[in-house]
Amino acid sequence: MPRVETHSVATLFAHVRTGNWASVVPHTWLHVFGAPHGMRALPLVEPVRAVPVGLVVTACEPGSAMARALTEVARHTDVAGALERLPGVPDPP
Predict the structure, then answer these.
(1) Greater confidence, 88 or 75?
(2) For the residues 82-89, what does the mean pLDDT come to?
(3) Which pTM does this prediction carry?
(4) How would you class 27 by CB atoms within 10 Å of its CB: exposed for 0-12, middle for 13-18, buried for 19 or more?
(5) Which residues contact 31 (CB under 8 A, 6 or more apart)?
(6) Are 8 and 26 in contact (CB under 8 A)?
(7) H-state helical runs in 1-93
(8) How far apart are CA 85 and CA 70, in angstroms?
(9) In angstroms, how far is the first alpha carbon of the chain from the final one?
(10) What is the Cα–Cα distance from 22 to 39, expressed in whole angstroms?
(11) Is omega for the bond preceding 87 within 30 degrees of 0, making it cis?
(12) Distance of alpha carbon 14 from alpha carbon 36, whole angstroms
């Protein structure tokens, strides 16, 4: 039964840091907050869930410099691999 409800991942981490709470959060947030001291992050192995993400940019040329840079980084980055190497997440068995 939930004891805390929030729309903020930062608030969830603040509660976990007190040592009185646990939470389920997207593992990408470990890049921002890391695993709280004295705790570790455990991956949920079941059910396996994948959500496709898309990048939409305007077709107008030349487009924004930021959109071009983001598109270039997305093309050349192994995002899934980077997320699997998060701090505080143990290697799979």
Answers:
(1) 75
(2) 64
(3) 0.49
(4) middle
(5) 86, 87
(6) no
(7) 9-17, 30-33, 65-75, 79-84
(8) 21
(9) 30
(10) 10
(11) no
(12) 9
